[in-house]
Amino acid sequence: MKLKVRDLEFSYASVPVLKSVCLELAQSEMLGIVGPNGTGKSTLIRCINRILAPQKGSILLDERETKEMRRMELAKKLGYIPQSGHHSFPAAVFDVVLMGRRPHLSWRSSEKDEEKVLDMLQMMNIEHLAMRDINELSGGQQQKVFIARALAQEPEVLLLDEPTSNLDIRHQLEVMDIIKTIVKEKGISAIMAIHDLNLAARYTDRIIMMNSGRIFAAGTPVSILTPDNIKCVYGVEAEVNNSNGIPFIVPIRPVRINGNGKSYE
Amino acid sequence: MPSETSFKRTAIKEQYKKFIGRKIIFILSSLILIFIFAGISATLGSYPITVTEVYSIIFHGLFQNPETTKEIVIWDLRLPRILMAVIAGIGLAIAGAMTQGILRNPLASPYTLGISSGAGFGAAIAILLGKGIVGGEYLIIGNAFIFSLIPTFIIVGLTRFRRATPETMILAGIAMMYIFSAATTILMYFSESEAMKHAYFWMVGDLGRASWNAILLVSIALAGCFFPLMWKSWDVNVMGAGDETAKSLGVNVERSRIFIMVVSSLLTASIIAFAGTIGFVCLVAPHMCRMVIGGDSRFLVPASGLFGGAFLLGCDTIARTIIAPVILPVGIITSCLGGPLFLYLIIRRGRKEYW
């Protein structure tokens, strides 16, 4: 196993957000985390990346406790792609991607780092944006720059926090395709918090469905994205069709849910 | 096609080299500007001395003590003032650039964190009550230095209870600014008008108190703070992408932020202890440089520094000569000149965002 999370608990002030979360991630696996708003998807991603410090539990990366690793060391292994990111100061795309080399360089960037940046720009097909200011780009272009920055870190695991939520359908597919390709070709593993169940169904190997801070169900997209699960977790009546072995979810109407997760009219 | 790709790569590399080259040219131009201003400034004043004379006097003075009136005027009056202007300008601008960077706020400067009001209060105690932490010649300087650092340490203390976010730090700084200003006003309210005037003008900022000793001390502070700040400039760049991204890129955001704040505060404190709270340089010099070379701190720090040095020297030269023989405090000129210049740049800049 590449990454193991055991009994993770996290609370903001005294409000518990994550409760005994366990998960495992294999090499070259793409894991989707789905669940309603405020269910702790982003919090989980941030805990794994030590942006937040969990109160309990352990996170093992290649069998090593991440909390015992130095931040720089962790940054060489985990790449994080935020949902969107505003840069406070103007920064050229080239320099933004170069920031991904930060964990590897001391102060001066070398020829090798610049070559790496060029590789990433080329891979993302955004060479023409190299000298543009990051804040002038569209959401889709920015997302590609952030992926390039995370890849410049040469990580073993990518953490993505709703990478498609601000994108149009073309960019959604483009970004997901890119990530899928990288995962398969480079043997990187990825954990992705994602709202769109259909994108999750299509692109992930395994899905974890969360409900109010706990893992509700985990497994292949087909076994997880069922009308029952969706009704229980989201309170939505949905139809799940099957197209070429990939579940396709058509949400129909919200239903009211009582405490037991059972719906009533 | 590999040939097309490699062509593209070379093109981007070329562009990037030019992009970096422009920044280096700006830095070098600012450095040259300092030397030009210094040459001009040394010739100006109530005692006329030509440029060539100035340089030969400076050159000779390196090997023997000044004897003639001209030599004394240059070495004991003008040169210390010029050097102090340059060093103070460099230090204030660097501290401003870094403070704006870590707080991600264009309005921030070390003064926003309460340093100037702390220093003002310390100086007011020394001037109005004659009491201080160190006595004698360094009464005012010592007080200003120590008191200017109080707000900084209170902010550092606060971050033990609250996370060191830019918002917390700015709000705490502004609270401190009000507290110390009020304390200073109370002192002034109950003091003699002569002493009050003295205290007031101390706060405006004046380079007339420059001495070789002061220059030595401030230079040491500048050298001691410049390198740690340059070393941290990468972290500031990364912090520009937001705390979360910065952490994911291996930066210990809270600790770096505090470290940079403390170093910037020390630098600012050692300058304003000798020169008073010269306004505007630390706020505006970094902005002017950002407009030209962008926000990359690795270049912004030296660029702001040298530009700030040139700017303060230019302002002081005007302060000395504009209504000679009266010498105005430089703080008046930095604001009178810097304000409109800055407004002009904002307007001329038009749509393009630089922050």
Quick description:
The complex is a heterodimer of chains A (265) and B (355). Chain A is of the alpha/beta class and 265 residues long. Chain A has 9 helices and 12 strands.
Please characterize this protein's 3D structure.
The complex is a heterodimer of chains A (265) and B (355). Chain A has 265 residues and is α/β, with parallel strands linked by helices. Chain A has 2 domains: 1-77 and 155-265, Rossmann fold (3-Layer(aba) Sandwich); 87-154, no CATH class. Chain A has 9 helices and 12 strands. A 6-stranded mixed sheet of chain A has the order 6-7-8-3-9-10, with helices on both faces. A 4-stranded antiparallel sheet of chain A has the order 2-1-4-5, covered by helices on one side. In chain A, α3 (93-99) runs parallel beside α5 (139-152), α4 (111-124) packs across α5 and α5 packs parallel to α6. The longest helix of chain A is centred in the last third of the chain and has 18 residues, at 169-186. Chain A is globular. Chain B is mainly alpha-helical and 355 residues long. Chain B has a domain at 13-111 and 208-349: ABC transporter involved in vitamin B12 uptake, BtuC, CATH 1.10.3470.10. Chain B has 14 helices and no strands. Chain B has helices at 2-43, 51-61, 69-103, 115-129, 139-158, 166-189, 193-204, 212-231, 233-239, 243-248, 253-275, 281-293, 297-321, 330-349. The two termini of chain B are 39 Å apart. Chain A binds chain B through residues 46, 49-51, 71-76, 78-80, 82, 85-92, 94-96, 99-100, 102-103, 107, 114, 118, 121-122, 127, 130-131, 135, 150, 153, 159, and chain B through 5, 8-9, 12-13, 15-16, 19, 101, 104, 231, 234, 237-245, 247-252, 290, 294-296, 353-355.
Task: Give the SSE layout.
The complex is a heterodimer of chains A (265) and B (355).
Chain A: E1 3-12, E2 15-25, E3 30-34, H1 41-48, E4 56-61, E5 64-65, H2 71-75, E6 78-81, H3 93-99, H4 111-124, H5 139-152, E7 157-161, H6 169-186, E8 189-193, H7 197-203, E9 206-211, E10 214-219, H8 221-224, H9 227-234, E11 236-243, E12 246-254
Helix pairs in contact in A: 3-5, 4-5, 5-6
Chain B: H1 2-43, H2 51-61, H3 69-103, H4 115-129, H5 139-158, H6 166-189, H7 193-204, H8 212-231, H9 233-239, H10 243-248, H11 253-275, H12 281-293, H13 297-321, H14 330-349
